[in-house]
Amino acid sequence: MSHISTGVEYGLHCLLYLSDPAAGVSDASAKDLAELQGVPVEYVAKLFTKLSRAGIVAATEGVRGGFRLARPAAEISVLDVVNAIDGNKALFDCREIRANCAVFGDKPPAWATRGVCSIHAVMLDAEKRMTESLAAHSLADLATRTVEKAPAAYGHQVVKWLGHRSSTRRSESGNPHRNAHQGEKS
After folding, report:
1. Smallest Cα–Cα separation from 33: which of 183, 56, 42, 182?
2. Which of 14, 60, 101, 123 has a Cα at 20 to 30 A from 150?
């Protein structure tokens, strides 16, 4: 079992598309972002609820509504996203089994349980380093890495795809017959 969930991966990928409004995508629906990447729509919608509660995204209103970043991408750390989606959970849960050694009988000696368990100390150090690393990387950093890898045309294709989805929603909302028909399917 991994410490950081798949939800964090999905959430970060979705947030990357919102991280550069200059590219033409300032907001998008959770549904469109999920479908763009081939990930479960319902799951992404739940993730965006968590991201919204954490102040990472804000809802935009109207037919073209969806979500936008609540603050600049450079001010959103990977740790912020991990904590928003997975919660601030410990990497390791020490069970203090050092006190259960059979040779101690019912009463472990003080030396055996004094201070922090040496295994737990290593895990605390690892957690501290992981937290520092996740805090040191922003959404803007990830977006820069992604843009550097992708061909220039990719960004335009994404903007066009999301724009088409948005305009389709807008035209569907203006057609009462289509809305009535869609209501029958629900």
Report:
1. 42
2. 60
Domains of the chain: 6-89+138-185 (1.10.10.10)
* Three-state secondary-structure class, residue 71: coil
In terms of Cβ atoms closer than 10 Å to its own Cβ (0-12, 13-18, 19+), residue 76 is: buried
- Residue from 63, 34, 20 nearest 179 by CA: 63
**With contact defined as beta carbons under 8 Å apart, do 99 and 112 qualify?**
yes
Q: pLDDT tens digit string along 121-178? A: 999 999 999 999 999 999 999 999 988 898 888 888 888 888 888 777 666 655 544 4
User: Residue 77: beta bridge partners?
Assistant: 138
**Under a CB-based contact definition with an 8 Å cutoff, are residues 70 and 58 in contact?**
yes
DSSP string, 103-133: GGTTS--HHHHSSS-HHHHHHHHHHHHHHHH
78-107 burial, b at 16+ Cβ within 10 Å, e below that, comes to bbbbbbbbeeeeeeeeeeeebeeeeeeeee
60 forms beta bridges with: 66
